[in-house]
Amino acid sequence: QVQLEESGGGLVQPGGSLRLSCAVSGNIFSIYAMGWYRQALGKQRELVAAISRGGRTNYADSVKGRFTISRDNATNTATLQMNSLKVEDTAVYYCNADTGVDYWGKGTLVTVSS
Q1: DSSP labels for the chain?
Q2: pLDDT tens digit sequence for 53-109
């Protein structure tokens, strides 16, 4: 079992930055990869960024060059640094841990609006 808790969402103006954090607890050694997903109103959940146990990263085309995912095994956290935010980045952001089974946090709302 793995437990995930996101934090760091909020309201930001276009062009601004936010940093999301995911606190991980439980059987952390079973985690292969971690990721951030988002779901905008009326849309399907989509992958934003993922990072493997070895540190390999993968990003959605829409966020490449603006978002950075990182993983700190010492503190059991996964972070998503979001820069140059756009209105279309508005969504609920979810932390994901893959152990062969998917675990999800409850999500944190990011609103980009002027």
Answers
A1: -EEEEEE--EEE-TT--EEEEEEEEESGGG--EEEEEEE-TTS--EEEEEEETT--EEE-GGGTTTEEEEEETTTTEEEEEE-S--GGG-EEEEEEEESSSEEE---EEEEE--
A2: 889 999 999 999 999 999 987 778 899 999 999 999 999 999 999 988 999 999 999
